[in-house]
TrEMBL record:
<dbReference type="Pfam" id="PF08713">
    <property type="entry name" value="DNA_alkylation"/>
</dbReference>
<protein>
    <submittedName>
        <fullName>DNA alkylation repair protein</fullName>
    </submittedName>
</protein>
<dbReference type="InterPro" id="IPR014825">
    <property type="entry name" value="DNA_alkylation"/>
</dbReference>
<dbReference type="InterPro" id="IPR016024">
    <property type="entry name" value="ARM-type_fold"/>
</dbReference>
C-alpha cells in the first residue's frame, strides 16, 4: 500500500476529530456552496498538515501527485484546501511535470477560494518559469468555464517585473466586455497588483481603455493610487 494512503487517512481522521459543526455551517454559508465542511479553520488545518508531514515523508513526484489529487478529491472542502497547501509546500516537486496536476485541479475548482490560489500560487510561478505554458493559458480565455477565464488573468498576479505585459493587456481587453463580476474584479485586481511595480503604467492603461474597462475594474485597479 502506498505510504500516501495512511497520510491521507491520518489527515481525514484528525480533521473529523477537530471539526466543529457550527464552524462548518458558517463556512458553507460564506462560500455559498453545497459542499460539506469539517468546520476546521486555517490555523488548525495547518497544524494537522504539519503533523501529517511528521507522520509520512513524501519523497517522489508520484507520491506528491497522489497526495495532492487524493486530497483534492475528498468530500469536504477543507481537503481541497489541504491539497493546495500540500501542492505548494513541497517545492521540489513544483516542476513542469506538475502542471497537468494543477490544471486538473483548476478545471474542477468551483469558486474563487480554490481558483485564485491555484492560479496565482501554483500555476502562475510555473508559467513565469516556462513561458511555453502561455499558449495553454491563452486557450483558457475562450473557455466556457468562467473560472478558467478568471485564471487566465490571475496567473499574472505575482509576476511583478517579469509580467508579460503584452499578454496581460491582450487578455484584459479580450475579457473587459464581460458582465461577470468575478472577471471584472479580477481585471482590477491584477492591475492593482501590477501597480505596485509600475503605477504609471496602470494609470496610463486605465486612461487609454476607460471606455472598454468596467467601472468596477477601473476602481479596483486604481484603488491604491
Amino acid at each position: 500500500m502506498s505510504l500516501v494512503i495512511p497520510m491521507v487517512i491520518f489527515i481525514q481522521q484528525r480533521m473529523a476529530e477537530v471539526g466543529n459543526a457550527d464552524n462548518a455551517k458558517a463556512m458553507q454559508a460564506y462560500m455559498k456552496t453545497e459542499q460539506d465542511f469539517y468546520g476546521v479553520k486555517a490555523p488548525e488545518r495547518k497544524a494537522i498538515f504539519k503533523q501529517a508531514r511528521e507522520h509520512t515523508q513524501i519523497t517522489s513526484f508520484i507520491e506528491y501527485k497522489r497526495l495532492v489529487l487524493w486530497l483534492w478529491s475528498g468530500e469536504n472542502r477543507e481537503e481541497q484546501y489541504l491539497a493546495m497547501d500540500a501542492a505548494e509546500y513541497y517545492t521540489s516537486f513544483r516542476t513542469l511535470e506538475a502542471f497537468p496536476v494543477y490544471e486538473e485541479m483548476l478545471t474542477e475548482a468551483s469558486h474563487w477560494d480554490t481558483v485564485d490560489k491555484i492560479s496565482s500560487n501554483l500555476i502562475g510561478p510555473l508559467v513565469k518559469e516556462h513561458r511555453e505554458l502561455e499558449d495553454v493559458v491563452r486557450g483558457w480565455r475562450q473557455s466556457d468555464n468562467m473560472w478558467l477565464r478568471r485564471a487566465s488573468l490571475l496567473i499574472h498576479l505575482k509576476h511583478k517585473k517579469e509580467t508579460n505585459l503584452s499578454l496581460l493587456e491582450e487578455t484584459i481587453l479580450m475579457l473587459a466586455g464581460e458582465q461577470e463580476f468575478f472577471i471584472r474584479k479580477a481585471i482590477g485586481w491584477v492591475l492593482r497588483e501590477y501597480a505596485k511595480t509600475d503605477a504609471e503604467y496602470v494609470k496610463s492603461f486605465v486612461q487609454r481603455y476607460q471606455e472598454q474597462l468596467s467601472p468596477l475594474s477601473q476602481k479596483e485597479a486604481l484603488k491604491n493610487l
